[in-house]
Amino acid sequence: MLSRGINYFLAVAEHRSFTRAATALYVSQPALSQQIRRLEESLGTQLFDRTGRATCLTDAGEVYFRYVRRALQVLEEGKRAIHDVVDLSCGSLRVAVTPTFTTYFIGPLIESFHDLYPDITLAIREMPQIQMEPLLVDNQLDVGIAFDEVRSPDIDAEPLLSEMLALVVGRDHRFAQCETIGVSALNDESMVLLTAEFATRVQIDRYFRQSDIRPRVRMEANSLSAVIEIVRRTGLATLLPANIASDRDDLVAIELTPSELRRTAVLLQRKGAYRTVAARAFIELAHACGVGRR
């Protein structure tokens, strides 16, 4: 457990105000200020700049804040390690998934995991990879499923599966009977695509530039389910993992030639993070499901 002074320090740093921090902690402001002064005296330095309208960390305070956050992560991992149960009769796991995997991969994986370990509480969050990595680093997530273009140096990535992006169309589309199609056919094709915050869209745009392709992007959506629904109900096409269409009767996945839209899915964890028994079981099962999808 952290000392009272350090808890008060974190509250003031978060709220950037002694008044708001005292309210959040249900203590008087003089009592909080006294604890902060004692902490500063014990460290021999000033932690907060109190001269402006907002209370800001000094340079020394910023350094101390980083170390305190790191200590909190270690303490939280220690707490989880104490309560970690080898037989998986209880426990919890926080998992984040990039949107394309929720349609065809995460469902069977979660079904298998729950069948094997019904007493483990799972918290599943769908988010772009750019949001996922900071949460993993801050120990707010245990495992992420995303792609191998990892930005953070504090993240470890394990290859999980390789998938191909294909032209996905409805059953009534003029290309629906084709097994393969040349990439040049995408020129002037009317399409709906995911918005730019998705890794899938970044890869697609890069592919278009490299292939000198200029499709007509008629719609964009920040939801995979919305893109699929639009393809089902309009003549628009899209580019998505071929596996998404394989489990649906109303969609067709057409391989593009040359086949250059391949990418690697990975399991993400913070470097050096304590890996609970539940996390190890989930990762092992994810690899097994990944083999089945290759």
Protein model, in words:
The chain has 294 residues and is α/β, with parallel strands linked by helices. The chain has 3 domains: 4-83, Arc Repressor Mutant, subunit A (Orthogonal Bundle); 92-160 and 264-293, D-Maltodextrin-Binding Protein, domain 2 (3-Layer(aba) Sandwich), CATH 3.40.190.290; 163-261, D-Maltodextrin-Binding Protein, domain 2. It has 11 helices and 12 strands. It has helices at residues 4-15, 18-25, 29-43, 59-83, 99-104, 106-116, 129-137, 199-211, 224-233, 242-246, 277-293; strands at residues 48-49, 56-57, 92-97, 121-126, 143-147, 155-170, 180-182, 190-194, 216-221, 238-241, 251-257, 262-270. Strands 3, 4, 5, 6, 7, 10, 11 and 12 form an 8-stranded mixed β-sheet that branches. A two-stranded antiparallel ribbon has the order 1-2. Strands 8-9 form a two-stranded parallel sheet. Strand 1 and strand 2 form a beta hairpin. Helix 1 (4-15) crosses helix 2 (18-25) and helix 6 packs across helix 11 (277-293). The longest helix is centred in the N-terminal third of the chain and has 25 residues, at 59-83. The protein starts with a helix and ends with a helix.
